[in-house]
Amino acid sequence: MESLISLVNRLQRACTALGDNGEDSALPTLWDALPSIAVVGGQSSGKSSVLESIVGKDFLPRGSGIVTRRPLVLQLHRIDEGREYAEFGHLPRKRFTDFAAVRKEISDETDRETGRSKQISSVPIYLSIYSPNVVNLTLIDLPGLTKVAVEGQPESIVYDIENMVRTYIEKPNCIILAISPANQDLATSDAIKISREVDPKGERTFGVLTKIDLMDKGTDAVDILEGKAYKLQFPWIGVVNRSQADINKNVDMIAARRREREYFAQTPEYKHLAHRMGSEHLGKVMSKHLESVIKSRIPGLQSLINKTLIELESELSRLGKPVATDAGGKLYMIMEIVRIFDGIFKEHLDGVRSGGDKIYNVFDNQLPAALKRLQFDKHLAMENVRKLITEADGYQPHLIAPEQGYRRLIETALVTIKGPAEASVDAVHGILKELVHKSISETLELKQYPSLRVEVGNAAVESLERMRDESKKATLQLVEMECSYLTVDFFRKLPQDIDKGGNPTHSLFDRYNDSYLRRIGSTVLSYVNMVCGGLKNSIPKSIVYCQVREAKRSLLDHFFTELGKREANHLGKLLDEDPAVMQRRVSLAKRLELYRAAQAEIDSVAWSK
């Protein structure tokens, strides 16, 4: 069971070293979950003397006013033999065998944090004491509660101390050791007052009554010690501290403990309570109770650690990797992030993610609808056919068939297909741009670096625009090819019989009669529809080849080429992560290290059910 207290000691040290003190954290902290014993009392309540009696050494700073200005986490380790020594958490490799030097170091370390003013700090000092005269126990000595500020202290000191004490003792895993002097009215006890506020039922409060030997003659503390005056769940424990004269004479602590035992055993009022009085008994009771509480909390600790590990790893994953320090590392990092984006973009095109189907919709619905809206039959109405045929003949009428008229009718009809062809190119370009922006937003790694996100977006759009221009050129060339060379079979199949207006002996007026012109219009419409059907299939092929295929193959080729030419400082500008995010990642990494260590520590401790 001793290993349980040692376990908590190690975890508390790790919490402080890695900044997990329960302050300013959005996540539940391990510090808050660890069972602890907080020593609470007013100034001159005998709090320091109680702690020194439990330890058996003079080691705490003394003086007037507020002496304890930082929480002191006092970790006691029982050793079987050897010389007593102390170690500080901030001086891990230095052993103190002179406890006067321990007192001085506590004062010096307090001043390092607060300056030589009388300010207070919530950052704890860790002190471990190894001795054969102690029990395994951890106590947190808090600044003494006060009612007025003294010279050199801010007016808020009363509230500041009370607030610090409350932040410790209001936690449900904190055991409160409330120190009250017996020579003062218990109703005015600072320790009892604040303990009652956070633990009204007294379920985790131990009452300690000091200065019993200094009570007025004819009075005693029996009612308090028996729980009649103020009842707590646990029995009150009385202690007799060394007097100021004993302290001045450097009376040995072991001798003081012996005199304390004799006092309770020989004083008639307290004889029946002597077996549960004294600082030695207090230490043993607190050690046993702390072990019991730790044991009961271990399943909850394990659950908290496992849950927090998942939360920390998830948030770290969301924040992404830290920025590399060297140019090569930065270049590799940028390329990896951009490849992730490129992969997501391709997944959209290939149907793994949504969006690529919109391109098919352009070819299957938008292009055919646009071609249908051209209404070639209106273009080839009687009056328009007559006008174009006549104009094509010029001053000399055609002899057999109006070939130039046919060509002009066909060319003017086919040219109108350029509109839907260009519209299809632009529609696919718009979809590809949309997929680029969507892919950027889905690339979590790009969210860390605003400059890189903008640069990649701009480079991708510029690349798409170049592909759009090439696609438009190639697609319009398909239409121009059809305009520049008509299919020969079309002319060979033209009717030349007399009934259909092909007889050259007819007059010029007869040659432009309605029946003849209607036949020309019908033939041209048939040809244009044939060509239109072919372009309806070839235009999508051209667009896919020039835009979609190229976007998959070389969307960021130009970006990669330019990236290789950049200097280290330019690469660093692309990875301009928000400083708050960087600090958050460092903080989370430290906490993750702490919780993994805590998980290993708890798993390694063998404890009985």
Automatic annotation (TrEMBL):
Domain Dynamin-type G: 31-299
Pfam families according to UniProt: Dynamin_M (PF01031), Dynamin_N (PF00350), GED (PF02212)
Keywords for this protein: Cytoplasm, Cytoskeleton, GTP-binding, Hydrolase, Microtubule, Motor protein, Nucleotide-binding
Location in or out of the cell: Cytoplasm, Cytoskeleton, Phragmoplast
Alphabetical list of CDD domains matching this protein: DLP_1
GO MF term set: GTP binding; hydrolase activity
SMART domains: DYNc, GED
GED domain location: 517-609
Subcellular location, principal: cytoplasm
CC terms in the record's Gene Ontology section: microtubule; phragmoplast
Domain of life: Eukaryota
UniProt record similarity statement: Belongs to the TRAFAC class dynamin-like GTPase superfamily. Dynamin/Fzo/YdjA family.
PANTHER family on file: DYNAMIN, PHRAGMOPLASTIN DRP1A
Record-given protein name: Dynamin-related protein 1A
Source organism: Abeliophyllum distichum
